[in-house]
Design brief:
This protein is an alpha/beta fold. About 40% of the residues lie in helices and about 10% in strands. The chain has three domains: about 1-230, NADH-ubiquinone oxidoreductase 51kDa subunit (Rossmann fold, 3-Layer(aba) Sandwich), CATH 3.40.50; about 245-325, Ubiquitin-like (UB roll), CATH 3.10.20; about 330-415, NADH-ubiquinone oxidoreductase 51kDa subunit, iron-sulphur binding domain (de novo design (two linked rop proteins), Up-down Bundle). The protein contains 17 helices and nine strands. The longest helix has 21 residues, at about 350-370. The chain is globular and about 75 Å long.
Length: about 425
């Protein structure tokens, strides 16, 4: 399997972030091939690959790209969502630091495929080093003719601008990101059926394509080697590879690129196994997805269907591992506080619900918990889930509700004994 890995296959090369080194390993060959094809031909190659959005939703990439073609002539935009704020996830940060030209090339390919002349990379404000790496890559791409008019022969051009956000988790949601990019408050917009999709009316009411960093980084390899090559990896319903950010109680935390469908415990072995005690739980897709107790991890395969069948989600691939010393209640207390802080406040279910969850969790860990608190938490989660203006409300509700259902005994221990069921403990730091 190792020889099939895509994005990190050249990690051993020093200075791979420079254009000169990137070209020695096939860099920009995918763009050259794309420019010899029609936009529809490029999109067909993406369709054959089976690439799905790697930001968490898993939506077929080709459908988004194809949705841009039916619009009338005029300005169109390609946007890279690099506002990686999901706790436990750090793959995009490393891609931008180590392989910025992959992202630049992927966006240039998308620009040709969608008839767009302008691209924006919206980077999380705290990511100053990745932003510097991206800026250098953009400058080098202009110098070598890959951006601007450059190697294009039809008189068109494609330009990329780098924009740093202010660190809001909410701006990882695509419509809030667009609002922020336009200088507005970073809050979500209405979506279908109440408003058109971004590919119809996005930035400045013009057609806009938005994809995740990892999604764009896959495009050069697909165009260089062919969609069928990429589709040969993964499973029937989840093609290709996925980067998982493994953290917590493991011997070798870091980013691991594996084929979709790989067993969860095989990924854990790659990361050196659990440290400090027996495995207690895994959160496989970032802090917003339901937690899996150790007993449910045995047969889980890391693809969209496999995670769904286990009662969780693939999400962004932030795989957080916890050993037996972890207090699940305190872990979820930290999680609840995070989402309460990051709620943009636009809609009532999320604004009020996340704060109520945080208050109840505060009460429990301060030794003032009430017998009805576990059921009250589930009730609050149920009233947020599916009722908020954007997915942040769902992201806040799912992990808390799952933790109560899976570890109710620990909540009840806190309520009865006013102390942790695992004694002295620490919640592991996650990225």
């Amino acid at each position: 399997m190792a020889e099939k890995l895509v994005l990190f296959e050249h990690r051993h090369l020093p200075g791979v972030e420079t254009a000169a080194v990137y070209e020695t390993v096939g860099g920009y060959e995918g763009l050259r091939r794309a420019l010899q094809m029609t936009p529809a031909g490029v999109i067909e190659e993406i369709k054959v690959s089976g690439l799905q959005g790697r930001g968490g939703a898993g939506f077929p990439t080709w459908i988004k790209w194809n949705g841009m073609l039916g619009n009338p002539p005029g300005d169109r935009y390609v946007v890279c969502n690099a506002d990686e704020g999901e706790p436990g996830t750090f793959k995009d940060r490393e891609l931008m630091l180590r392989f910025p030209h992959m992202i630049v090339e992927g966006m240039a390919i998308a620009g040709h495929a969608t008839g767009s002349a302008t691209g924006y990379i919206y980077i999380r404000g705290e990511f100053t080093e990745p932003a510097d790496a991206i800026r250098r890559a953009v400058d080098e791409a202009y110098e070598r003719g890959y951006l601007g008019e450059g190697i294009r022969t039809d008189g068109s051009r494609f330009d990329i601008h780098v924009h740093l956000g202010a660190g809001s988790y909410e701006c990882g949601e695509e419509t809030a990101l667009m609002s922020s990019l336009m200088g507005e408050r970073g809050q979500p917009r209405a979506k279908p059926p109440h408003a058109p999709l971004p590919v119809v009316a996005g930035l400045w009411r013009r057609p806009t394509l938005i994809n995740n960093v990892e999604t764009y980084a896959c495009a050069p390899h697909i165009l260089r080697r062919g969609g069928a090559w990429y589709a040969s990896m993964g499973t029937e319903r989840a093609k290709g590879t996925k980067i998982f950010s493994v953290s917590g109680h493991v011997a070798r935390p870091g980013n691991y690129e594996i084929e979709l469908g790989t067993p969860l415990l095989e990924l854990l072995d790659m990361a050196g196994g659990v440290t400090g005690g027996a495995l207690k739980a895994i959160i496989p897709g970032g802090s917003s997805v339901p937690i899996l107790p150790a007993a449910k991890c045995t047969d889980v395969r890391l693809d969209y269907d496999g995670c769904r069948a286990a009662g969780t989600m693939l999400g962004s691939g932030g795989c957080m591992v916890f050993n037996e010393t972890t207090d699940i209640v305190k872990l979820m207390w930290v999680t609840a506080r995070f989402y309460a802080h990051e709620s943009c406040g636009k809609c009532t279910p999320c604004r009020e619900g996340t704060r109520w969850m945080a208050k109840i969790m505060d009460r429990i860990v301060q030794g003032k918990g009430r017998p009805e608190d576990p059921d009250l938490l589930v009730s609050v989660c149920n009233n947020i889930d599916g009722r908020s203006y954007c997915p942040l409300g769902d992201a806040a509700a799912w992990p808390i509700r799952a933790s109560v259902l899976q570890y109710r005994d620990e909540y009840e221990h806190w309520v009865r004994h006013k102390t942790s069921p695992v004694g002295e403990h620490s919640v592991p730091k996650v990225a």
